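Help! Submission page says 'invalid entity' but I think these are all valid:
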Amino acid sequence: MKDLKINNQPVTLVDQVEAKLLEYIKTEDLNPGSSMPNEQTLAKALGVARGVLREALSRLRMLGLIETRTQRGMVLKEPSILGGMLRVADPLLLSELSLLDVLEFRVALELGISSDIFRKITKKDIEELEVIVEKGIILEHNEYALASEYAFHSKLYEITGNQTIIQFQKIINPIITFVKDKFEENFKPINIELEKENRIVTHADLLECIKTGDVNAYRDKLDCHFLIYSIFLNEKRKLSKK
Amino acid sequence: MKDLKINNQPVTLVDQVEAKLLEYIKTEDLNPGSSMPNEQTLAKALGVARGVLREALSRLRMLGLIETRTQRGMVLKEPSILGGMLRVADPLLLSELSLLDVLEFRVALELGISSDIFRKITKKDIEELEVIVEKGIILEHNEYALASEYAFHSKLYEITGNQTIIQFQKIINPIITFVKDKFEENFKPINIELEKENRIVTHADLLECIKTGDVNAYRDKLDCHFLIYSIFLNEKRKLSKK
DNA sequence: TTATTCCTATTTGTAGGACAAATATAATAA
DNA sequence: TTATTATATTTGTCCTACAAATAGGAATAA
């Protein structure tokens, strides 16, 4: 076992069993609902103690890949592609570098769904956005109350109808909120400057583009709406290179 | 334990221990490199058998949150935000619906990083893209050989310098490749039609926009480059609604 | 015949003990 | 002081036993 290491961590029997179980599931072409052999059988087949097998199965259970039932045994499920992220997407667990990556990722994604939004939006969606914008609480310098910010932007994600994108945005929202709070003092002067230059884009501005169906104007304004993050990230990246 | 279920799955002691460990790590404000109490101590503190604790710790190990060392004990690490995705991002594990979500996610993301690319790109990057485009192998109807397709697009991701985005694209690439292969017969007629309408955008076209610095033209052309996916996804989504 | 209830067998979940394996640290020698 | 060796410590693995929770079959009632 001495020579079996990844990232200087020994590759334990549990790691190996986990990999073998994944392989088994894939090669047997098992589908959600399929049963797997019971623990005793699997442990014997893999030549490990039941405890080791259980540790590996526990991992699969966490991934959502299996459900376990007394008597029936283990049943396959489709894993959640973002299930792992859900567990670790916490500002207390991640480095600042990763948090900034996520912020940038989120900005890029929202710019990227613009075409999808315009393609898929309904009259009802627009009405809902109107309500959100009307009820939105604006603090100073185009800062929105957290709930207003979340309501508007998550509605945009919902319009895509893409469950993975929608779930992604929900998962990372605590990170976005945290970063905005932590670096409030950095964001404030940027915002004031943007305000002076008349480069503030409100939710109402964005909604106006949506209503007129001008996706290019929407993208430009959204890019501008997020300029505060781009400027902030550029500054942080510059500092971190020194 | 009868009343403690989530999604009709019993919440086991292992689930509870996992949650408590995560809570402990967060509330103790532990950082990468910090040590945790050893297994015996933790098991006693949590009032569970060592086996149960080990199952929960095994999960944390999988997430990359802890490293385990004999004598030293367990040491905290920063988890990889995409580590869980890496394990399940496999076409053999995911439903078709999820695969299509991922395809759409990827398209949106690449559209979304356009501003970042133009902001961050260097002369060297452009030269590398030129080499990639020159060496690119084009099949018929603007289909690129897999390696050429991957080389061009992954270079774009690399230009962002955002490690999370870069890793994301790598992780989902097998999915993208699988979907393109599986639905080849669907893509072909769309491609032929786009070719007739002169709506084919090549990597060389995109590179030209990059070189002239026209981000809006780039976005339009990229949207067009991905039109085949948008049309395909719309058709699949229409069918699945009936 | 069908529906409901009860019972049994089966499997997972948990506990505890033992010992091997791999360090990390302390002690000793050069 | 540095290098080597020995020891203590902790994780990794194995085993046994039994509790808990079904799942499915059998029996009974309508």
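Support: the input was valid. A stray whitespace character was the problem, and the output above is from the cleaned input. DSSP finds 13 helices and five strands in chain A.
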